[in-house]
């Protein structure tokens, strides 16, 4: 999968950018604040429906403008290309696929797969569980598209159960039962899809992380599903009604799941340095990419933001060479050309004051 043409209007500092791309390595260089990361952010928005940066959604729109738009021609195979459009105006997203409006964000992102390593990626390892669930669920979604429907069913029932819990001082069993039954059906489906994906992901994680962090020894991925293994989700929800009513929210279920990487010589994540956290996050990204390629026959688009400041030269070169070898479309940003790419054919772009030009 790769982007042939990318057009961006009104995204942060990018006023009107049009770029022709191809397979292989692309390097975007320029001073800090020039808009390099925003190019990668545009690709990520098409793939995830959200930014990899923190902050309000309205901060995405360039100052002085009331809307942003992103358009990409995405080659899925040699003979199949999708025209994808994503816009935001008046606090709402609009999605277009092959010239047709009215599509959901979920339908749009199903046609574009991009993974990203950026300065905040270490939060995947050291941050909140929500980041790790998002990582996992993005991968599940691109293997099993029905997963999104089940997740939405679960979230809708979860909101209704929480509202019911807060509406009465004493839990109303009759009012809770239908929502708990729906949560159980959808939640068990979500859990089954996640477990299948985790099993497929494990060998890819082991391979990439042992390559990046051999000094930490053997690795295993531990997954916790969000409620006790000994009970069904429905039984757990019934048993926890009074405690959940006291708290005002549901404290068990797939929305509480988490996972962790456990190394032979670093059994707790607190044992990892910041540099090791970054390499773990990078390994997770590469593992997800190689599993995607195994399932779909081609790598997702790979975005590496500010690569030189995040990795030492040895790891930069290892990553670049491995990605060049699998013919992935790779977009790399930096204040200058990355020396790790010496001797490798690249497409070079210069970014300055929101303009992108090919060099």
Automatic annotation (TrEMBL):
Localization: Cytoplasm
GO BP annotations, alphabetical order: DNA replication; DNA synthesis involved in DNA repair; double-strand break repair; SOS response
Superkingdom, natural source: Bacteria
RecF/RecN/SMC N-terminal domain segment(s): 2-338
GO cellular component: cytoplasm
Record-listed ATP binding positions: 30-37
UniProt keyword list: ATP-binding, Cytoplasm, DNA damage, DNA repair, DNA replication, DNA-binding, Nucleotide-binding, SOS response
GO molecular function terms listed in the Swiss-Prot or TrEMBL record: ATP binding; single-stranded DNA binding
InterPro entries (alphabetical): DNA-binding_RecF (IPR001238), DNA-binding_RecF_CS (IPR018078), P-loop_NTPase (IPR027417), RecF/RecN/SMC_N (IPR003395), RecF_2 (IPR042174)
NCBIfam families: recf
Family as reported in the entry's similarity comment: Belongs to the RecF family.
Function in brief: The RecF protein is involved in DNA metabolism; it is required for DNA replication and normal SOS inducibility. RecF binds preferentially to single-stranded, linear DNA. It also seems to bind ATP.
Name of the protein in its database record: DNA replication and repair protein RecF
Native source species: Oleiagrimonas soli
UniProt lineage: Bacteria, Pseudomonadati, Pseudomonadota, Gammaproteobacteria, Lysobacterales
């Amino acid at each position: 999968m790769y982007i042939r043409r990318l057009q961006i209007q009104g995204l942060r500092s990018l006023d009107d950018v049009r770029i022709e791309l191809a397979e292989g390595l692309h390097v975007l260089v320029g001073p800090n604040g020039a808009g390099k990361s925003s190019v990668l952010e545009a690709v990520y928005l098409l793939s995830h429906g959200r930014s990899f940066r923190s902050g309000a959604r309205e901060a995405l729109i360039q100052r002085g403008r009331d809307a942003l738009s992103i358009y990409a021609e995405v080659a899925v195979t040699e003979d199949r290309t999708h025209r994808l459009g994503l816009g935001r105006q008046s606090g709402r997203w609009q999605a277009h696929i092959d010239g047709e409006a009215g599509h959901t964000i979920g339908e749009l992102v199903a046609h574009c797969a991009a993974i990203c390593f950026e300065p905040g990626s270490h939060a995947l390892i050291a941050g909140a569980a929500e980041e790790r669930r998002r990582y996992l669920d993005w991968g599940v979604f691109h293997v099993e598209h029905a997963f999104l429907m089940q997740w939405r069913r679960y979230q809708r029932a979860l909101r209704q159960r929480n509202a019911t819990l807060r509406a009465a001082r004493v839990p109303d069993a009759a009012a809770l039962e239908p929502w708990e039954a729906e949560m159980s059906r959808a939640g068990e489906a979500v859990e089954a899809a996640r477990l299948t994906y985790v099993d497929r992901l494990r060998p890819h994680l082991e391979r990439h992380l042992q390559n990046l962090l051999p000094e930490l020894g053997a690795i295993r991925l531990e997954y916790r599903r969000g409620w006790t293994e000994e009970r069904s989700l429905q039984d757990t929800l019934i048993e926890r009604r009074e405690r959940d009513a006291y708290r005002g929210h549901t404290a068990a279920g797939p929305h509480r799941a988490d996972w962790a990487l456990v190394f032979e010589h670093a059994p707790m994540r607190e044992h990892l340095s910041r540099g090791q956290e970054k390499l773990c996050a990078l390994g997770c990204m590469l593992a997800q990419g190689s599993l995607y390629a195994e399932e779909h026959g081609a790598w997702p688009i790979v975005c590496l933001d500010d690569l030189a400041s995040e990795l030492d030269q040895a790891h930069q070169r290892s990553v670049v060479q491995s990605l060049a070898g699998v013919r992935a479309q790779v977009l790399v940003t930096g204040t200058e050309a990355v020396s790790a790419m010496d001797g490798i054919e690249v497409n070079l772009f210069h970014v300055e004051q929101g303009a992108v030009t090919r060099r």
